[in-house]
């Protein structure tokens, strides 16, 4: 689930390039496009049951309110005489920056958690491969099917039982297979082909 969340958030962050270009061009469409981007993001976060959804909704509300004359104190000091159009642009830009920061923090948190598990998986695979080769994908087998098969075939003897149990309780199964898959890919790529076709 965290892997899916990470991919979804990265996908929304990619949309910021287009928004940045609109802002640079001082396009009058910029605030409206920001509102739409935030609304799409809210829907995604809602489906993911992420508490960030409320934060994004609040930031979107500020951008909408700026159309009606709301001025964020951070942007417009009293009596600054900033035009309403510039205020809308600045409010939208500030909202994007705030949301972007939260999304990046969430992704970094997931990455940090995955890195901890990735190290444990690498240790586990090193122990296992010293005893017997790790099986390679079979003909016609999907990538996810291969990962599941490798996980199910990992021995749970005295040398590995503790590590396997730790990993089982560290992440949801789908996230565990995601990190396992990345680790297996790295092993195959970095070591040539250290596994067999078993």
The secondary-structure element order is HHHHHHHH
**Rg, Å, rounded:** 23 Å
Main β-sheet: number of strands, strand sense, barrel status?
none
Note the overall shape.
elongated
| N- and C-termini, Cα separation | 30 Å
Percent of sequence in beta strands: under 5%
Count of helix runs: 8
Indicate how many domains the architecture comprises.
2
The assigned structural class equals mainly alpha
Number of DSSP strands? 0
* Share of residues in helices: over 70%
Low-confidence stretches: 193-198
User: Overall mean pLDDT score?
Assistant: 87
Give the SSE layout:
Elements: H1 2-14, H2 16-24, H3 30-47, H4 52-67, H5 84-131, H6 143-153, H7 161-170, H8 173-190
Verbal overview:
There is one protein chain. This protein is 72% helix and 0% strand. The chain folds into two domains: 2-111; 112-190. The protein has eight helices and no strands. It is elongated. The two termini are 30 Å apart.
List keywords for this structure.
198 residues; 2 domains; elongated
In brief, what are we looking at here?
This protein is mainly α and 198 residues long. The protein is built from eight helices and no strands.
